[in-house]
From TrEMBL:
It comes from Szabonella alba. This is Lrp/AsnC ligand binding domain-containing protein. Residues 6-76 form the Transcription regulator AsnC/Lrp ligand binding domain. InterPro entries: Dimeric_a/b-barrel, Tscrpt_reg_AsnC/Lrp_C. It comes from the Bacteria. It holds the Pfam family AsnC_trans_reg.
């Protein structure tokens, strides 16, 4: 499994709708609201045999209300 963190910037007033839609997809391990440039951050485990970009695009990035995303790849837990 590949662990990635995805931050979401939402259309103003749509953060809760986006968060609910993300949870409905049942692919996030954890989802938090955040302060700063982005509104939400999700921890996602992607199967090792999947392409990260395709996996996220096909399963998350079509949710209405998402304006921008930032994906952070992880390499090793300490």
């Amino acid at each position: 499994m590949i662990c990635v963190f995805v931050q979401f910037r939402c259309t103003p007033g749509k953060t809760y709708e986006v968060a609910n839609a993300i949870y409905d997809r049942e692919i996030v391990s954890e989802l938090f609201s955040t302060s700063g440039e982005y509104d939400l951050i999700a921890k996602i485990y992607i199967p090792a045999d999947q392409d990260v970009g395709h996996y996220l695009s096909e399963r998350l990035f079509d949710i209405p209300g998402i304006m921008r995303t930032l994906t952070t790849m992880t390499f090793r837990a300490f």
